[in-house]
Design a protein that fits this description.
The structure holds two protein chains of two kinds.
Chain A lengths: L1 H14 L5 H14 L7
Chain B lengths: L16 H29 L7 H13 L3 H28 L3 H18 L4 H11 L5 E2 L2 E2 L6 H15 L18
Antiparallel strand pairs in B: 1-2
Helix pairs in contact in B: 1-5, 2-3, 3-4, 3-5, 4-5
Classes of the chains: A mainly alpha, B mainly alpha.
Chain lengths: 41, 182
C-alpha cells in the first residue's frame, strides 16, 4: 500500500489528475490476469 | 478489522505454499492499487481520503468539533459511499462466485473510469475502494485486508509479542508483515 501510494503520489505531482488512469490500468491488468489463473471453487 | 462472514469469497482455498504465496502477491498488488488511488485522492482532495476511512473518521470528528458542517457533510458522504461500495462489491463477489477476482476488479475499473472522466471526482473513487475489499479475503489461511494498514500492524505487533514471550513458537506471524495481510 505504501509503495502504491508513493507511486500514485509521484504520478499525481507530475501529471496531475490524469494520474488516476495509472491505477485504472493496473486494475484492468489484474482483472484480465485473474482470468488466466486457476480460480478457487 | 474482523474477517467478513463470507469467507467463502476468500482467495486460495487451501493452505499450500504456492497458493498462499500467489494469494499474498495478489493481495500486495491490490493493496498497492488501493494505496495509489488513496494517494491521488488525498492530493486531489487536499487531505481527504477515498480509502483510508480511519483518517476520514478523525477528520469528520475534527470538522464537527470545529463547527464545519459543510466539511463534515463532505467527509460523511465519502464514508457512506465507501460502505455502499463495500456492500456492492460483496454482492458482485457473491454473484460472480469463483470469478469474483475478475468481476470485482472490473467494477473497480468502471467506477475509477467514471471518476477519471468526471475530472477525478471523489465519490466514484470511494465506491471503488469500498468494492475493492471484496476482491479477496484470504490467502490460504491468512486473512488479508486491502485498504487498511492498522489491522496489519496490530496483528504483526501481537504476533511479535507472543513470539517474544514464547507463547508462539512458530514463525508464521511473520506472514502478517506481508503487505495486504491482515
Amino acid at each position: 500500500m505504501i509503495t502504491g501510494a508513493t507511486v500514485g503520489g509521484a504520478a499525481y505531482v507530475r501529471i496531475g489528475a490524469p494520474a488516476i488512469w495509472v491505477p485504472i490500468a493496473l486494475a484492468g491488468v489484474l482483472a484480465a490476469g485473474s482470468t488466466l489463473m486457476p480460480q478457487p471453487d | 478489522m474482523s474477517e467478513p462472514a463470507s469467507a467463502a469469497c476468500g482467495s486460495a482455498s487451501g493452505g499450500g505454499f504456492v497458493e498462499v504465496a500467489r494469494g499474498l502477491a495478489l493481495a500486495t498488488t491490490l493493496a498497492a492499487l488501493a494505496g495509489m488511488v488513496d494517494a491521488i485522492g488525498d492530493l486531489h482532495l487536499r487531505g481527504l481520503f477515498v480509502s483510508f476511512m480511519s483518517g476520514n473518521s478523525t477528520q469528520l470528528a475534527t470538522a464537527l468539533g470545529q463547527g464545519d458542517v459543510a466539511g463534515a457533510a463532505t467527509i460523511a458522504e465519502l464514508i457512506a459511499l465507501f460502505v455502499l461500495g463495500a456492500a456492492a462489491g460483496q454482492m458482485v463477489a457473491d454473484f460472480a462466485g469463483r470469478w469474483h477476482m475478475t468481476w470485482v476488479p472490473i467494477g473497480v475499473v468502471l467506477f475509477l473510469a467514471i471518476a477519471a472522466v468526471l475530472a477525478t471526482v471523489a465519490e466514484p473513487m470511494a465506491v471503488a475502494m469500498g468494492a475493492l475489499n471484496a476482491s479477496m479475503h484470504r490467502a490460504g489461511n491468512i486473512p488479508v485486508s486491502l485498504t487498511f494498514v492498522t489491522g496489519v500492524l496490530v496483528r504483526f505487533g501481537q504476533g511479535l509479542g507472543n513470539f517474544l514471550i514464547r507463547r508462539a513458537t512458530e514463525w508464521n506471524w511473520l506472514a502478517q508483515a506481508a503487505p495486504g495481510s491482515e
